[in-house]
Amino acid sequence: MVDAVIQGIDARAPARKRSSLRKAMQRKSTVAFLMALPLILLIALLVIYPAFYSLHLATLNKSMERFVGLSNFTFLFKRETFWMVVQQSCIFAVTAVIFKALIGFIVAHFVHNIPSKGQRKWRGMLLVPWVIPPAMSCLAWLWLFDPSYSAFNWIFALFGIGPVSWTGDTNWARFSVILINIWIGAPFFMIMYLAALKSVPEQLYEAAEIDGANWWQRIWYVTLPMMRNIIAITALFSLIVTFANFDIVRIITAGGPIDTTHVFATWSFWLGIQGGDIPLGACVSLFMVPILAVAATFILRDINRRGSEV
Amino acid sequence: MKRKTVTRRRFMATTAAASATMIAAPFVRTANAAGKLSIGFWDHWVPGGNNASKALCEEWGAKNKVEMQIDYITSQGHKNLLTIAAEQQAKSGHDILAFPSWQPHGSSQHLEPVDDIMAELVKLHGKVNPTVEYLARSGGRWIAVPTCVGSQIKGPNSRIDFLKKHADIDLLAMYPAGSPPKADAWTMDAMLKAAEACHKGGNPFGIGLGTTEDNVDTAGAIFQSFGAALVDAKGTITVKSDPVRKALEYYIKLSQWLPPDAPAWDNAANNKYLISGKGSLIMNPPSAWAVAKRDAPQVAEQLWTHGMPSGPAGRYSPFLPYFWGIWNFGKNKTAAKELIMFLSQRTSVEKMVDASAGYDLPAFEKLTDFKIWAEIGPPKGTLYHYPNPHNHQVLAVAAQPAPPKIAHQIYTQAIHTKMIVRILKGEQMEKTLAWAEGELEGFTRT
Question: Which CATH class for the B153-318+394-443 domain?
Answer without folding.
Answer: alpha beta
